[in-house]
Write a structure and sequence with these properties.
This protein is mostly beta strands. The protein has strands at 2-7, 17-22, 24-25, 28-29, 33-36, 46-49, 55-60, 69-74, 85-86, 103-107, 110-117, 124-129, 134-138, 144-150, 155-162, 168-176, 179-180, 184-185, 192-200, 203-210, 217-224. The strands form 6 sheets. Strands 14, 15, 16, 17 and 18 form a 5-stranded antiparallel sheet that branches. A 4-stranded antiparallel sheet has the order 6-7-8-9, with no helix packed on it. A hairpin with a 2-residue loop joins strand 16 (168-176) and strand 17 (179-180).
């Protein structure tokens, strides 16, 4: 399955787009289908297949300029989808596209989803469960590029955050059920950018850039939980 944003034909609005998809059948893509006629203009789309085999699509919706993250679900390999459901009612109203979508990871039979919201009441990156239960919000304005990793018993959300005058560093929190740890810094990751990784048993295997004077380098870091 491929999901994408497409310009609305004959629209009189600036950058009005809808959400569409195509499915493959016997190796051939079928005709595109309209999934949601009014969505946020540019925010990236995130797909996830959970532990039960259901396909979830997370995208930023646009309901009269309220730009919250919506979810649609298919349990029949994309033949049909549920109605769009706002994952968590942030109520962020902005007359423009934030250019920031959601990230997700399977966690047990469910999932964890994170995204940025500029809602006045609680601005920052939030992490919620598949059911929309909020686990925490990162309100520090220096937080960037979160990533979620999950194992059989716990999950980790890692991100970049400013450390006073020493620059950005990778930090993370552990999630075990509904319990969330304090923030932990990753040693040796000053000036780290754009991290990604895997959880292997009780270790994190991280890959990230390191900001340099003339060009960035790549580094692999392991963390014992």
């Amino acid at each position: 399955a491929v999901f994408y944003l497409k310009d609305v034909a004959n629209s009189t609005k600036h950058e009005e787009r809808d959400l569409r998809m195509v499915l493959s059948k016997n190796g051939v893509f079928q005709p595109e289908r309209l999934i949601d006629p009014v969505v946020c203009d540019c925010c990236n789309i995130n797909l996830l297949v959970d532990g039960n085999g259901a396909l979830h699509v997370y995208y930023r919706d646009n309901n009269d300029d309220i730009r919250d993250i919506a979810k649609i679900t298919s349990t029949d390999n994309g033949a049909t989808f549920s109605k769009p459901q706002i994952l968590h009612n942030d109520g962020w109203k902005i007359n423009g596209c934030p250019h920031s979508g959601a990230i997700s990871s399977t966690y047990g039979k469910g999932a964890l989803i994170a995204w940025f919201s500029g809602a006045e009441s609680e601005s920052g990156f939030r992490l919620v469960t598949q059911e929309g239960k909020k686990l925490f919000v990162l309100s520090d304005a220096s937080v960037k590029n979160p990533w979620i990793m999950a194992g059989a018993k716990q999950a980790v959300m890692i991100w970049e955050q400013s450390q006073t005058d020493s620059g950005n560093q990778l930090v993370f929190r552990k999630i075990n059920g509904d319990k969330v740890s304090e923030t932990v810094s990753v040693d040796g990751t000053l000036n780290a950018l754009n991290s990604t990784g895997l959880m292997l048993d009780n270790q994190l295997l991280l890959a990230h850039e390191v900001k340099g004077d003339k060009k960035n380098s790549l580094k692999i870091t392991t963390v014992t939980l």
